[in-house]
Amino acid sequence: MKIGLYFCTCGTNITETVDSEKVMAELTAQFPGSYAAKVEFICSAEGKTFFKEHLLANRPDRVVVAACSPREYENTFMQILSEAGINSYFLQMVNIREQVAWVTPDPAQATQKATTAIRSAMARVSRQVPLEKKELEANNDVLVIGAGPAGLQCALFLAEAGRKVVLVEKTPTIGGMPVLFEELFPTMECGPCLLEPFEEEVLHGNYAHNIELLLLSEVAGVTGYYGNFTVTIKQAPRFVGPTCIGCGMCVEACPASGSNEFNCGMAEKKAIAMPFLGALPNFPYIDWKSCLRSHGDNCQLCLDTCPMPETMLLDDKERIVERKVGAIILAIGSKLYDCRKIRGLGYGEISGVYTSLEFERLASANGPTAGEIKTPAGCAPASVAIVHCVGSLDPKHQPHCSGICCEYAFKFNRILEHKLPGTKVYHLYKEMVASGKDDFSMLDHARKNPHATFLRYHDLKEIEISAVAGGQKITYLREDGESDSFSSEMVVLCPAMVGSEDAAKLGEMMDLTRGAAGFFDELNGRLHTAQSKVKGIYLAGTCQAPMDISHAASQAMAAAGYVLSGLAAGKKLVIEPITAAVDKERCSGCRICGGVCPYKAISFMPETETSRVNALLCHGCGTCVAACPAGAIQGNHFTNDQILAEIEAILQ
Amino acid sequence: MTTLEQTNPFEPKIVGFLCNWCSYAGADKAGASQTPYPPNVSVIRLMCSGRVDPQFVLDAFHKGADGVIILACHPGDCHYKEGNYRAVRRHRILLRLLEQFGIEKDRCNFDYVSAGEGEKFVRVITEMVSTIKALGPLRIPLPAS
């Protein structure tokens, strides 16, 4: 075999200690048919030209470049091989600068070490086989799950870029959680003021034609992989068609009512109703379990009063929709930690103890009390205790800090100061955070409220909230260990944010792992927080980690960015050849490989009872190759044969 | 009178399996800072320490290596998320097997070297070489027949 050895002297960087002539003579003698050429700087323009011309003139079967670290120029030299008509995977680089010449002062030792290293490369390269990059057609459409701020941002951004977006939302409306909030920190802007224009853009804007919005819908199945996913979506009946003008006459006529999830169950709504005042799209839906028709009644008062009866679809049925997309963005949000798990706080047992989400609705003009903050007895509270860090910073519950609770607690302070001047506010906290550009102003403002008191508690488990006449008594241990107590007329709990049940369900469906708190694992916590561990599935907003709206929106843009750069129009997906491949004949179907693959790239084929590597998802780490007890998996470009040849040549 | 060892001191042959992303880059850092270290370790670059098949280690000893060193990314730093965890577990099991062959466990070392740890790379290699020098050449005992 004709192996071309190119020895770069790197000026004198390498030859100062390594005797190039001795190395080249010894190795060309050991590998009959091979030749050696010396270059001064193979990375320079002249060096590269020489290299290419020399390859064209000599047509070697394999090429070894002994120079600097392959981490620098391997790719460059591979390209030159290609240009010279030689398969680029016929190259092996030997690092005789960083790992020999620069670290071995003794010339005899350096020459010996370089000879060994180059010999093993020549032994290896002779066993290298031609490999090619493969290309695959990809679908450029995108599925976005969740129409909160993050999901809307993704959908709009992608639609503006001309992408077709399927936006799936579980509820009958869009805008997510913050659209239900009266005000948002840190600017105290109203939630609908921020989000409604944005929602309008998605519904009726210049790029709305690129967004297919599926409300009351849930993803029921996902098959395929990056570039070629098939998604099954289950859409519940709304019973009201999109031609509805939103006049609300049906709502007045409806005789039935039921629990209102948009008000955290604190007030009822009609069986046919808008989700809440101002909800978009602006037309009602029938909550089937509350509707008399679900109990066999023939009531059709909604239809009878409707000025456009053709819009009422009382026989509406569940639909199963299938869509093909290239990428999936999860923007499904999170939930609050269940305060019932912390017995001493009395949540769910003592009246007047609310979660922060419930308080948001009490403070909201379109909430159950039309924005009047009232105790269950119907009076404005003279004092409100806000308990921070509920279920956070506590290994028994959730060890993490959600980061946003302090901010909204200070927001509540401001809302109380504004709506109910003179109300005493107690901030009962374990730790306090106010980082970032604007957040400290919230804390500062809260401190300046003359009726606000800040009390630091020692441990959540020592807080006891009990019902007393007119309100609650709160007993706790101060940080110095002394017991203290005070009374209030309302308690607001600020619980940890945790992953939702939907995250568990979708995670299982898409093979996504989740951390202890239920948030989706990201590919890398610093560089790739918007990318999940499965290629082609991205994360935006609080399903990945607790965050505020600004972070969620930024992450949404990042997720959309991945899609735009990875699935560009007219661009095919490239499958890198350094991947693993299963030899079906040798595979016993034990599935050990599937268990060790960090990328879920290996699937089991029941029809042949063998495993298969999806080369598009494989990153080429080789863990499965080492794990396979049958030796049935080959790691391309790092085959056993190649590595064993390297070992043998080292020890020759 | 000089002994054979004095004129021809034992220079161990050690095979090093380095992952591409951390340890190999760490070795390059040692090179960039031009810190000398003993030349006895020959490096085989793999994409991930998780690719180190225990068979490679056994083969290296079989073909005459006096020592083998596997260097990986630090826990939590693996470019492939968890290849280093596989590697460390395989190494632990491998040590038990090597003992049964009569190969001292110090001849097969596992350590973590990050892309920034040029100094640590030099230290780990230097210590490995002196450990193997102290152990002497590998002589695999023949099974009692």
Written overview of the protein:
The complex is a heterodimer of chains A (652) and B (145). By secondary structure, chain A is α/β, with parallel strands linked by helices. Chain A has 5 domains: 3-125, Rossmann fold; 134-234 and 318-334 and 500-572, FAD/NAD(P)-binding domain, CATH 3.50.50.60; 249-311, no CATH class; 337-498, FAD/NAD(P)-binding domain, CATH 3.50.50; 576-636, 2-Layer Sandwich (Alpha-Beta Plaits). Chain A has 17 helices and 34 strands. In chain A, the strands form 12 sheets. A 5-stranded parallel sheet of chain A has the order 8-7-6-16-29, with helices on one face. Chain A has a 5-stranded parallel sheet with strand order 18-25-19-20-21. In chain A, helix 11 (405-419) links the parallel strand 19 and strand 20 (424-429). In chain A, helix 2 (45-58) crosses helix 3, helix 6 (149-160) packs parallel to helix 7 and helix 6 (149-160) runs parallel beside helix 14 (549-566). Chain A is elongated and about 100 Å long. The relative contact order of chain A is 0.10. The mean pLDDT of chain A is 96. Chain B has 145 residues and is of the alpha/beta class. Chain B has one domain (10-135): Rossmann fold. Helices cover 41% and strands 16% of the residues of chain B. Chain B is built from 5 helices and 4 strands, in the order H-E-H-E-H-E-H-E-H. Chain B has helices at residues 4-7, 23-32, 54-62, 83-100, 118-135; strands at residues 14-19, 41-46, 67-72, 108-112. Chain B has a 4-stranded parallel sheet, with helices on both faces. The A-B interface holds A 69-71, 95, 97-100, 102-106, 109-110, 112-113, 116-117, 120, 533, 578, 596, 598-599, 619-623, 625-627, 635, 638, 640, 643-644, 646-648, 650-651 and B 13, 15, 20, 24-25, 27-28, 30-32, 34-37, 39, 42-48, 50-56, 59-60, 63-65, 79-83, 86, 90, 122.
